[in-house]
User: What shape does this take?
Amino acid sequence: MQEFKIDPIIYKTKPSKIKRSQQEMDIYDLLEQLNIAYLRLDHDETPSIEFCHEVEKLLDIEICKNLFLCNSPKTHFYLLVMPGRKKFKTKDLSAQINSSRLSFAAAEDMETYLHTKPGSASVLGLVNDKSKTVQLLIDKDVLQSEYFGCHPCVNTSSLKIRTSDLLTKFLPYTGHEPIWVELPAFQDHTQRP
Assistant: This one.
């Protein structure tokens, strides 16, 4: 695994605009507008969930996977939010949402609807989906944690926010109603009791 640098300082406020995208700064401004408190940690780019383990330790959270999916004709788009520890298999989700042949959506579609790039998908990107094209799917296990971990639409910072704030403040603001799904926990069959 490549070297991963992390700033161990945990911030309660937004960063200065220096070297920050307008997209990221807009997220912080919106969280302040909605009175959503957060803790922020800055770090190198996280190309996958495996790079988030140190972030999780410092923020005392589990970073959620945010997977941008679509059906094969690309007529339905989904943002799946699930615990980072779970493995994703399309067959576990397809039947629950009556959509066969799910796959990862193209980077161009992610940019169009969420205004983010692969590796930076975040439930916070739904603020950019003004047409409500993307259906939010949330694994019920996300509700088990008091706090929710995600990126502010860039994968060089991570946020810790209350799960209740996500559900009662942020999602009502964007107008996205989640569909609750149940994905099985990964079981390692190589270990014996």
Confidence is low (pLDDT under 50) at residues 188-193. The radius of gyration is 16 Å. The beta strands are 38-42, 64-70, 77-83, 103-104, 134-139, 147-150, 157-162, 179-181. The domain at 22-178 is CATH 3.90.960.10 (YbaK protein).
